[in-house]
Specification:
Strand content: over 45%
Helix content: 10-25%
CATH class: Mainly Beta
Pfam family, one: DUF6503
Organism: Winogradskyella aurantia
Shape: globular
CATH topology: outer membrane lipoprotein receptor (LolB), chain A
Number of domains: 1
Structural class: alpha+beta
InterPro entries: DUF6503
Number of helices: 4
Number of strands: 14
CATH architecture: Clam
Radius of gyration: 22 Å
Protein name: Deoxyribose-phosphate aldolase
Order of helices and strands: HHEEEEEEHEEEEEEHEE
Amino acid sequence: MKLWTFVFLLVCLSCKNDKKPAEQSAIEIIQKSIEVSGGELFSSSVIGFQFRDYFYRAKRNNGSFVLTRSTVNENQDSIFDILDNTGFKRIINRAPVQVADSMAKKYAASVNSVHYFSVLPYGLDAPAVNHKLLGVENIKDENYYKIEVTFDKKGGGEDYEDVFIYWVNKNTFKVDYLAYSYNEEDGVGMRFREAYNERYVNGLRFVDYNNYKPKAGPVDLMDLGSAFKNNQLDLLSKIELKNISVNLIQRQ
């Protein structure tokens, strides 16, 4: 009897060890993705980069932030937009100017959008962000966690109704693809982005994107990965960050 009991225990332990570990939750995957991309270094940093005709600068430190965008227009006026914890401000030729609330919201959203995309997936673990693991999808012979991200109205920003899909590589935990839907005056717009030109600057990961739109007809957001694989998307533009600089702030 003791021998059979011992054999039975060995079989049980073997079965237990053969069981696959529980699938990771969406938030755990997102947190790992943030970590391999630079993690908490983003939270205490000064990041600068050129995007098209604008220079952007982001200072993040212990929950406070200052996001800026600057350019010189055709009249040689210097335009400096500032978005921080207190709201939005515009400075033209070093003098503050009054901006209508409706335009201030548009300018603030535009500044925030570029800074938001520049450091993804940083910020996706914020309290107002909701995550849902949709499963696993294969793109270009790589397996990806497919995660839906939505936002609460409170704390989710002006575009809280936008819906995102992130494809997180199962091996590297890096975001290689993303898609999102956004509200337009004539309906809902769709975009799919393919990351390329990965580089680390002072420990922080940055990528550029090929920016796609559906070729014709409506496409469900959830199906944009399949549409990309089946060559049903058109390249609309390239999202390229140039002259990136990163200075890390020492925590007190």
